[in-house]
C-alpha cells in the first residue's frame, strides 16, 4: 500500500507493517514485550503509531532481524542505552506545534497554549528528576 503522508503523520498498524515488512500480529506481539511501544488507540482499539513509535519499532526490528538479538537482548539494550540514544533526541516531540503556529488563533489563545506547554515541560522535568532520585 503506497501512502503519501507527511513523515510526521500518524500511521495505522497496517501502514507500519507494510513499511517495515512485518505482519501486523508481530507488531501487536512486540507491544506486549516492549512497553515503550505505545501507539494511540482509538475507537474499536484501532492503533495509530506516532513517528517516534514507528522509529522505535524500526530499531527493534533492526536488532531482532539484522543483529539477531533475542527479545530479552533488545529489552536490555533499551534499558541500558535509553530511548533517546536509541531513536534520537526528540522523543515524542510535539507534532502539532508546527500546525499550531499556522492556525488562526487569537494572541490570547496562543499565549495560553504556550503557558500550558511550558508548565507541562516543567512538570515533566520535575517528575524525571524525582524518578532519578528514587532510583
SSE arrangement:
Layout: E1 11-12, H1 13-20, H2 24-33, E2 40-41, E3 47-49, H3 51-66, H4 71-87, H5 97-102, H6 107-134
Description:
- Helix content is 63%, strand content 5%.
- With 135 residues, it is mostly helical.
- The protein folds into two domains: 1-90, Multidrug-efflux Transporter Regulator, Chain: A, Domain 2, CATH 1.10.1660; 96-135.
- The protein has a three-stranded antiparallel β-sheet.
- The protein is globular.
Strand content: 5-15%
Amino-to-carboxy terminus distance? 45 Å
Total number of distinct structural domains? 2
Structural class: mainly alpha
Tell me, briefly, the overall form.
globular
Give the fraction of residues assigned to helices: 55-70%
Largest sheet: 3 strands, antiparallel
**Integer average pLDDT:** 82
- Could you name the CATH topology of the largest domain? Multidrug-efflux Transporter Regulator, Chain: A, Domain 2
Low-confidence stretches: 93-100
CATH class value of the largest domain: Mainly Alpha
* Widest beta sheet: strand line-up: 1-3-2
Rg estimate, integer Å? 17 Å
What pattern of helices and strands is seen along the backbone? EHHEEHHHH
Tell me how many strands there are. 3
Amino acid at each position: 500500500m503506497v501512502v503519501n503522508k507527511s513523515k510526521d503523520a500518524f500511521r495505522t498498524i497496517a501502514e507500519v507493517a507494510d513499511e517495515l515488512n512485518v505482519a501486523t500480529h508481530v507488531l501487536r506481539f512486540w507491544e506486549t514485550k516492549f512497553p515503550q511501544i505505545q501507539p494511540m488507540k482509538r475507537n474499536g482499539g484501532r492503533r495509530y503509531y506516532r513517528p517516534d513509535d514507528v522509529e522505535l519499532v524500526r530499531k527493534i526490528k533492526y536488532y531482532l532481524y539484522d543483529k539477531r538479538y533475542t527479545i530479552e537482548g533488545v529489552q536490555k539494550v533499551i534499558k541500558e542505552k535509553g530511548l533517546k540514544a536509541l531513536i534520537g533526541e526528540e522523543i515524542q516531540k510535539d507534532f502539532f506545534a508546527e500546525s499550531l503556529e499556522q492556525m488562526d488563533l487569537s494572541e490570547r489563545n496562543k499565549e495560553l497554549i504556550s503557558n500550558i506547554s511550558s508548565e507541562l515541560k516543567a512538570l515533566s522535568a520535575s517528575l524525571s528528576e524525582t524518578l532519578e532520585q528514587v532510583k
